Amino acid sequence: MVKVSIVVFAEMDDHADRARVVNALEAVKELKEHGDDVELIFDGGGVTSAVAMADPDHRLHRLYSLVEDRIGGICRYCARAFDVYEKAEELGLTFLAEYDQHPSLRNRLVEGYQIITF
Description:
alpha/beta, Hypothetical Protein Ychn, Chain: A, 45% helix
């Protein structure tokens, strides 16, 4: 079994960025279906993507909901920096703040996770 943390930094402002987000979700879905230990993290501008897709009216919500149980959380610092903290809180998203108010990638590496970024 592989251990993977997939980190989404991409916003969804244009077609290429939306494709990165969709590919990240598809990768999580595939790993999940194979029983792998996979975690999805939204960091940087990716926090805006998480908040957008958590809305049931968003066109990617169905795909998002298929991997929602594998979402480790979103960066607390970046949620504030990108002005989505309150909305994320309303949606019940989990905030990660293990290192300077950001997710700790080092902790995940120490735990044996491979890190893939989108």
